[in-house]
Amino acid sequence: MDSEASFWDHVVELSTRLRKALYPFLVITLILLVAPANPTEIFSLSGFYEPLIGLILRRVREQVLSGGIIGIKITGVTLIGLNFSTPLELYFLTSVLFGFVFSLPVIVYEIYKYIDPALYEHERRMIYPSTVAFTALFIAGAVFGYLVIAPFVIWAMIPFFNLVGAKMVINIYDFYSLIFLTVIFTGFSFTMPVIYVLLVRFGVLSTSTVEKNRLYFYVALFVITAAITPDGGPLADLALFLPMLLMMEVAMRIARRYEKERSGGGKEARKIERRCKYCGAIIEEGEVFCPFCGRSQY
Questions:
Q1: Which of 26, 53, 138, 179 could anchor a disulfide with 187, C-beta 3.0 to 4.6 Å?
Q2: Where are the beta strands (DSSP E) in the chain?
């Protein structure tokens, strides 16, 4: 009966956490859809005004076409809607996307509150720093993709339009899809060092294997960057590959340190004491209930 009650307690808590994460997402998405970018425009006689999501899309378009931080102004691009419903689809889908992005801190907090009581201290020492590093690198990669890679990809395609004598008339849905997918893929590519360090810490991969085959490893890494920037040409591939190469070299040094500690050269090589997550008392390995407070550890 206790185990059934405990199980349903977890289900109820999970549903509560999901609702707390869902409400901000829905509210923010609705605000992006209907709130005016300029509050004074809502009283316009025409009845039309620019919503917040319209302002965001306009800023994204202007930022990318101005060249981001690379400063290469992109001219001659004409955006069109091939289908009658394309602007409406883009309007709703981008609102949902940015609603999720802006509500992400609440979502992450609710996930943290749900899983934290179930973690041991040594698990917290491993998971939370890795999560912070993963998040920081993803944000850095997303910003890099937005300010460097996305403008580079569009700029690199202009000569091919000129080569075949075509005007650069692009479906607006394809334009924004290219930008957002480039930002997301670049963000995830920047997290590869964290994934590599975790694989080494868990014993799935060894640093010696990668270091002995460093050339093949970096060739594979370059292929991955080329897949992330399929339309950017070799210069865009190189612009993404170089920072990833530097980060992987740093990750190898960090992973080598953890590898030495696991093999007996550091503090973490010593046996980690298992403690009760409620009262902090030491518990023997395999024990389900704490001998002091009597509470289940699962």
A1: 138
A2: 77-80, 168-171
Question: What token pair was written down for 134?
Answer: 């993963």
Q: Within 13 Å and on the Cβ side, how many CA atoms surround 263?
A: 9
Which DSSP letter does residue 274 get?
A: P
8 A C-beta contact, residue 78 and residue 169:
yes
Whole-structure pTM value = 0.74
Structural tokens at position 281: 């008392």
If you write DSSP's letter for every residue of 184-244 in order, what string do you get?
Answer: HHHHHHTTHHHHHHHHHHTTSS-HHHHHHTHHHHHHHHHHHHHHHSTTSHHHHHHHHHHHH
The Cα–Cα gap between 26 and 14 comes to 18
C-alpha closest to that of 56 among 19, 24, 10, 96: 96
- Rounded Cα gap, residues 256 and 241, in angstroms: 22
Q: How many CA atoms lie within 13 A of 171 on its CB side?
A: 11
Kindly report, residue by residue over 222-269, the tens digit of the pLDDT. Answer: 888 777 766 656 777 787 888 888 888 888 888 888 777 766 544 444
Q: Give the 3-state secondary structure of residue 165.
A: coil
